[in-house]
Design brief:
The complex is a heterodimer.
Chain A (H helix, E strand, L loop, with lengths): L1 E4 H15 L3 E5 L15 H5 L4 E3 L4 H13 L3 E5 L6 H18 L9 E5 L15 H5 L5 E3 L4 H13 L4 E5 L7 E4 L13 E4 L4 E5 L3 H16 L3 E5 L2 E3 L3 H11 L2 E8 L4 H13 L8 E5 L8 H7 L3 H11 L3
Parallel strand pairs in A: 2-3, 2-4, 4-5, 5-7, 6-7, 10-11, 10-13, 13-14
Antiparallel strand pairs in A: 1-8, 6-12, 9-11
Chain B lengths: L22 H4 L12 H16 L3 H26 L14 H8 L7 E4 L4 H6 L4 H8 L23 E4 L5 H16 L5 E6 L6 H12 L4 E7 L2 E2 L2 E2 H4 L15 E6 L3 H18 L3 E6 L17 H8 L3 H11 L5 H24 L15
Parallel strand pairs in B: 1-2, 1-3, 3-4, 4-8, 7-8
Antiparallel strand pairs in B: 5-6
Classes of the chains: A alpha/beta, B alpha/beta.
């Protein structure tokens, strides 16, 4: 086991897959000579050169389309968006082309492309650089959606995403690139898509968290244990689509209480979907209504105090856990 | 077959309140203001077509005419069965534009790749897909080329290198650029032909794709099928210039304007562009101007243009023009034409029988092919 930042774990995954498969290449704005806007691709251009690591013009729709076409013609492109917020410019290619190609070609054309980059808020980057877009992309059959929260998950899931024959939306988090964690050795380490991970075992209440809210939920769990002797289980789905609802249902059957913590806005969110699926699969096991902590329904403000207020935090999650535990 | 009903006077730019000058005053291309082409010019065109025919293999010429006639008869049949309720959804016909698909695609190698818009039936067949598999798809049958999952706008054949009909205006320009990127990356020597209508040129993806294709030196031929109307909006009402070919100048990309009513002119220009792609890894933009005889789709009443305008183009119909040249060049006789027409009709009738008799997709197909 090596201790790596999420940034370096992603870098390792890219490097290993580029070596493993000649058809893998990385394309995006500033990924090559500049070493990546967030340094995820650091050193790769120097090592692999212009063929495998390609700087693009600022042309999101265009290079997303190149990814789709190249994938149809047999390559495995990894397309980086500097932030998922910019993917909205490219969403026609992701939604209308990548997601639907296999189905509307009657199963003839696979689109094994990975679109990746940071999703959600960063550090006071304001309205147009802070949106969490996973719910939007999760709404399209044909796409897989991945949101890792640890270095090991980031590496193992990215490698699986690159090897997957479907278009994968791989969402990182800028605030988390520097987080360190242990990563298993060996370039054959992968984590399958669609398998949730229980980040902390508990018996009294389940928190379903993903991406940025996982470390926050773990802190909230510690606080609940220390201050209220409540044992909290934290489940990280890791993959939004396909969603491992079974693991979440089993957790709720054990704890009988559920809090969902997510960075996205609440309306029509992934959390809303999970709440529905729990109602469908574990209604009789719930001892309290499900609570959800999300970002407020406003564009992200710049001012630090307002940004903090908008986002989920430990205290908000603790309050929600207390509420479902009737404390 | 009934012609599209046209009742109203033409809506000209001037009557619409626009101060825009007439097309011929705006820029170049006066020589190809096709609608105003005089009889004398028409004769000139016949002469140049004849010259090109003399340099081309006779069997290929016969096959080119056959594909054009097959495409025409196929689309006429589509209109007929659409009106009978056999085909659902949208149905965009290619009548009048046959010279573009045939002239360009029949200059390709079989392994080359093609991608186009939703007006895709004829391109699919010229790439080698059977009329049966295309018509059965239009009927929404299990035997359709994509098992009844795509319909009129989404014909695909991976085996034949037909990367589909696509329903988002311009989307395929970017996808085609990616296909060419893959061909260069893998060093396969394949060329990509990427078709789109003139209205797609106003989309951002056109400009983004041309920039990347020239910047990265990709083996692709962008073929703008200028049928002069984006749905019901004429080019003059939607584009600040008539001159599409020369938009490529902005990217320092090779470009050519081609008369799309002349299949040999399309072929000759395509040969040049395909060679540039294959030998030099360099893209080309071809603007091929033709005319769509039918409405944008089967639901289009066509009240934005006159019968007279359509008739003017029909006077120099690409099939009639090519037939006459082949006759003049003594490549084909009347007897040959009769046989060729019969073969095309037989192929279409056989496709109808096949589509009619084919089963609907199984209900279990609903959820297959969502994920690979």
């Amino acid at each position: 086991m090596a201790t790596l930042t999420i940034r370096d774990a992603l870098n390792q995954a890219l490097r290993e897959e580029i070596i493993r498969d000649d058809n893998v290449f990385v394309m995006g704005e500033e990924v090559a000579e500049y070493d990546g806007a967030y340094k995820v691709t650091r050193g790769l251009w120097k090592e692999f050169g212009d063929k495998r690591i390609i700087d693009t013009p600022i042309t999101e729709l265009g290079f997303a389309a190149v990814g789709v076409g190249a994938a149809m013609a047999g390559l495995r492109p990894v397309i980086e968006f500097m932030t998922w917020n910019f993917s909205v410019l490219a969403s026609d290619q992701i939604i209308n082309h990548a997601a639907k190609m296999f189905y509307m070609s009657g199963g003839q054309f696979k689109v094994p492309v990975v679109f990746r980059g940071p999703n959600g808020s960063a550090f006071q980057v304001s309205s147009q650089h802070s949106h969490s877009l996973e719910a939007m992309y999760a709404n399209f059959p044909g796409l897989k959606v991945v949101q890792p929260s640890t270095a090991a998950d980031a590496k193992g899931l990215l490698k699986s995403s690159i090897r997957d024959d479907n278009p994968v939306i791989f969402m990182e988090q800028e605030r988390m690139y520097g987080l360190k964690g242990e990563v298993p050795d060996g370039d054959d380490f992968t984590i399958p898509l669609g398998v949730a991970d229980i980040k902390r075992e508990g018996t009294d209440c389940t928190i379903v968290a993903r991406s940025m809210t996982v470390p926050i939920a773990l802190q909230a769990a510690e606080k609940m244990q220390a201050e209220f002797d409540v044992s909290v289980e934290v489940v990280d789905p890791r993959t939004i689509k396909p969603l491992d609802i079974e693991t979440i249902v089993n957790s709720v059957k054990k704890t009988n209480r559920l809090v969902i913590a997510e960075e996205s806005h609440s309306f029509a969110s992934v959390g809303a979907e999970i709440a529905y699926q729990i109602m469908d699969g574990a209604f009789d096991h719930l001892d309290a209504p499900i609570k959800r902590i999300s970002t407020v329904e406003a564009p992200m403000p710049y001012a630090k105090n307002l940004e903090t207020l908008a986002l989920p935090d430990v205290d908000k999650i603790v309050a929600a856990v207390k509420e479902v535990c009737y404390l | 077959m009934a012609k599209t009903a046209i009742n109203r006077k033409p809506v000209t730019a001037a009557k619409n309140g626009s101060k825009t000058a007439k097309p011929s005053e705006k820029n170049g291309n006066e020589e190809f203001a096709v609608v105003e082409l005089a009889k004398a010019e028409y004769k000139q065109r016949l002469k140049s077509q004849l010259e090109s025919i003399k340099k081309t293999d006779k069997r290929l010429l016969r096959e080119m005419l056959y594909q054009m006639v097959l495409g025409r008869r196929f689309e006429e049949k589509c209109a007929e069965v659409y009106r009978m309720g056999k085909i659902g959804g949208f149905c965009h016909l290619y009548i009048g534009q046959e010279a573009i698909a045939v002239g360009s695609m029949m200059a390709l190698e079989p392994t080359d790749m093609v991608i186009t818009s939703y007006r895709d039936h004829v391109q699919a067949m010229v790439k080698g897909m059977s009329p049966e598999s295309v018509l059965a798809e239009l009927y929404g049958k299990a035997t359709g080329c994509v098992k009844g999952k795509g319909g009129s706008m989404h014909m695909f054949s991976k085996d034949l290198g037909f990367y589909g009909g696509h329903g988002i205006v311009g989307g395929q320009i970017g996808v085609g650029t990616g296909m060419a990127y893959a061909a260069k990356y893998k060093g396969t020597g394949q060329v990509t032909l990427c078709f789109f209508g003139e209205a797609a040129v106003n989309q951002g993806i056109f400009h983004e794709s041309l920039n990347m294709a020239q910047l990265w030196k990709l083996p692709i031929v962008f073929i703008c099928e200028n049928n002069q109307y984006g749905m019901g909006t004429s080019q003059d009402r939607a584009m600040s210039t008539r001159n599409i070919a020369r938009k490529a100048d902005a990217f320092e990309m090779a470009n050519e304007f081609v008369d799309g009513m002349d299949v040999m002119a399309v072929r000759d220009a395509s040969i040049r562009a395909i060679e540039r792609a294959r030998k030099k890894n360099m893209p080309t933009l071809l603007e091929v101007r033709a005319y769509r005889y039918m409405g944008h789709s089967m639901s289009d009443p066509g009240n934005y243009r006159t019968r007279e305008e359509i008739a003017k183009y029909q006077e120099r119909d690409p099939i009639a023009l090519f037939k006459q040249s082949l006759n003049d060049a003594k490549v084909l006789s009347e007897k040959d034409f009769t046989k060729l027409e019969k073969d095309a009709m037989d192929a279409v009738e056989s496709a109808v029988k096949f589509a009619e008799e084919s089963p609907l997709p199984l209900e279990s197909e609903l959820m297959t092919d969502v994920y690979a």
